[in-house]
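Weekly puzzle thread! Below is a chain. First person to post its structure in token form gets bragging rights.
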Amino acid sequence: MADETTVLPAMGFATMLDEDDRAQLGGFGAFIDLGDGDMLIEEGVEQDALFLIIFGTFHVQTATTGRSVLLGNLRSGDGVGEVNIFDSGKASASVVSKSISQVWKIDRSQLEQYLEAHPRASTRLLVSIATQLSKRLRKTNEKVAMAREAVLDSF
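Winning reply:
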């Protein structure tokens, strides 16, 4: 059994994994402590890591329009970085800790090592990540539709 400090809690994309699988996955990444105001992900900077928020709150924000715009909030159990773990590139938004927080981080090469070493658990992990991405896409589509309708109604 892995050291208890490497066991991921049963939350977010790790929910579908049993304790042994969460311990194995946890050992491929690292737990990171952050303070209020610490930047987890910086918009426009290359990003190839997946994060699971263990505790704390985060703001997701962008400055693409020239001023900072809050896109949403993240909290315990939320994942972030799912897009760039599969399609490496520059981060499309910044993620900033708004409290004392802890996240678990795994980069793409560590994830690939895990996938090769634990193919059965990897299937459940990847389905869980895809499910979370799908839910997020659905919510975004709803927000875009509502915003578009509001703009059309203003004419």
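Puzzle host: Confirmed. Bonus trivia for everyone else. The radius of gyration is 17 Å.
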